[in-house]
Structure formats: structure tokens, C-alpha cells
């Protein structure tokens, strides 16, 4: 089982949305997937309660429980575990980073988000963790996004699939769905499938 943690020091970056949509995409791709919600806000736990489908598996988890929960999921035969974390800089995020095979750092294309991403990247490098930035809630033209990507590349890898501001994301989560379920032919679903295809390749190379 591979464990992927979504972590950043800034709230509102889209971690929970990405975790939910990636989990649904992974499950739809045939990978038995679990989500551990270690964010005190419990956004993913609430999302799961709105779902009719039982998969992907979602459960609340305190940071100190992560190691035991992951071992249990591995014994149950899960292939992927996604961990959502609080968007703050505190010691509660450290256990989620420690258990991760890969960390995803969502970053909105704004100066404040770029500035917040740098210390997150440093923390991950100091812990010798593989990580990649994911440009999230994107807006603006290609030149703007290319400039942001170039700035991020100075600090780490950038996922080759951007996630844009689209109404399908909040609408899907409101209905307890991922965007690939809510509007399979929409632009948001295509973005998530591209991001998942890249992520599956990356975690597959770790095996």
C-alpha cells in the first residue's frame, strides 16, 4: 500500500477537494482506496457521510493514530491511502508527513500561497520526503501559470496537471461525489484523471 499525504501550511489550498476527487478517481481505476481525515475540520468525513457509495473508505483519524490505522489498512488489502491534514503549521501535521511515501503540496497561483509553500517544501526536504507541488484552484492565462510553475520548480517537482477553479468541484463535494462521478465528461474530471494518472505512475515507480 502506498500512502500519500496532502500537506501545506496555508488553509484554503484545496487539500480536501483534491483528496476526495483523487480517492474517487483511484477507486474508479480499480485501486482499493482509503482516506484518513486528520483535519480537525473533518471536511472529508462530512463528505463521506453525504455519499451513497461505501467506497472509497473514509474515516476520521487523530494524528497519533495514523501509524496504527495505516498498518490496519495495509492488512485489509488497501492499495492506496490518502491523508488529509490541517492547513496550519503545527506539530499535528508531522505524523502525517512521517508515514507518507509521497506528499502533495497544493498551491494556488498567488504570491501568498507561493510564500507559504516554500517553508513546507523545506520541511519536507529536511525530512527527506519525496514531494510534489500541485497547482490548485488555478486562474489566469498560461503565462501567469507558467511563471508560478517556474517559481515552484526552484523548490521542488511540480505535478504536470493543473487543477482550475471550476464549479464542478464544490458542486460535486456538496453532493458527496468526486468530479469524475459528478460530471465524467467535464473539464474538472479530465484534470483529475490526468493528475491521478501521473500520481499512479509516481507511486508505482516507488514499488
Quick description:
This protein is of the alpha/beta class and 207 residues long. The protein contains 9 helices and 7 strands, in the order βαβαβαβαβαβαβααα. Helix 1 packs across helix 9.
Describe the overall structure:
Strand 6 (131-135), helix 6 and strand 7 form a beta-alpha-beta unit. The protein has 207 residues and is of the alpha/beta class. The protein has helices spanning 15-28, 43-49, 66-75, 94-98, 111-126, 142-153, 168-174, 179-182, 187-205, and strands spanning 2-6, 33-37, 57-60, 80-84, 102-107, 131-135, 157-158. Helix 1 packs across helix 9 (187-205). 45% of the residues lie in helices and 15% in strands. It is built from 9 helices and 7 strands. The chain has a 7-stranded parallel β-sheet, with helices on both faces. It has a single domain, classed as Rossmann fold, CATH 3.40.50. The radius of gyration is 16 Å and the shape is globular. The mean pLDDT is 94. The longest helix has 19 residues, at 187-205. This is ParA family protein. InterPro entries: CobQ/CobB/MinD/ParA_Nub-bd_dom, DNA_Partitioning_ATPase, P-loop_NTPase. Residues 5-155 form the CobQ/CobB/MinD/ParA nucleotide binding domain. It holds the Pfam family CbiA.
